[in-house]
Structures are given as structure tokens and as C-alpha cells.
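[Q] Does anyone have a clean C-alpha cell version of this?
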Amino acid sequence: MHYYRHARTAVEPTEQFMGYYRVLEYYFLRRMEHAVEQEIETLRGEPNLSEGSDEWYARVEEVRKERDNERAQLLIVLSACVKDGEFSNALKQPGAVKAFTAANGVLGWMNGKQPAKPPSSSQPNLVEIFAPLLYQLRCRIVHAKDGGASRNGFVEHPILPASREGEALWPYIHMLRWAAERALIRIPRAASAGP
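[A] Here you go.
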């Protein structure tokens, strides 16, 4: 709750963005472990795989490695707190797509190349679209002190406080706040329910 309250009182857009992102980050390990436990239960049901064998441990390790990065964990948390269709309902609000289009024009993506297409309410799984965008923005804010986040050997333009790019974050901040609120409400119940 501390990160959420901090984000709500922050004036700077980059500070608000990171406060709401940290709310989601709080759940990363808990939800990753939950997802891994579910995958292991699935493995137990495979008839040609003997629990305790070398192949079994190799598959368990593979499952853990797949989930052991921040991008995968963000996707897991967003999937746990945002129900199907909720992002698309939010994008159907008047002016939402226009706001994202304008923001993407200022923010640019992938080293200043073509801006990303604006999210559309007709896209099937918006959680899978927003998760990498939110992670990329997070990296551009966090790694601003290093001159930009490295992505596959390329340097992204940092998003600095009190900058034009920082001001362009507002549509993403609203979406992130909305997701953080759902995480605070929904994830503790889901996590306590167990696999």
C-alpha cells in the first residue's frame, strides 16, 4: 500500500509511473512461484515423465527459468489481476486510443524508429501487449541515470523527470494505476487460495 500511496501523492509523472509499477512488482515473486507450482502440477500429470528422474528435474528447471525474469513476472501479475476484456473496456473510453497514439508519438519505441501502433480494444489479449510496453517504459525511466536502457545491444532514449517524454506517460500511468488497484484488491485473495 505504501507504493500506491506514494504514487497517488507524487507530482512527477515518472515517479507516479514507478510507484504504480512497484505495486505490481511487489507481487512478482509470489505470483511467479504460484505459476511455477501450477506448471509442476501439470508436469505431474504427464504419463511418460517420472517424478524425481533427471528429465523431471530438467523440466522443472526449465519451467523456473521461463518465469525467472521481470518481463514474464509482470505478465503473470497482470494476468492475475486484470480479467479478460477489462483492458479493452478501458480503451473504449472516449479519447483513450487517441491519448495512447499521441503518447507513442512523443515516446517513440525501439530507438526512435517507428512508433508502436496504438493499442486497440479489438486486440485479443491486451495484457500481452501492455506488459512489454510497461516494462520498456520502466526500463527507460530506471536506467535514465545510465543514459538509457540497453535492449539487445541498442540504447533506448531515457525518460527523464520534467521532460516531454515524462509528460507523455499519462495514458500509461492511468492504465498502470488501474492495474495496480486491481492487484491490491484481487491478488491477495488469489494468492491465498493456492494452486
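[Q] Thanks! Anything notable?
[A] The two ends are 25 Å apart (CA to CA).
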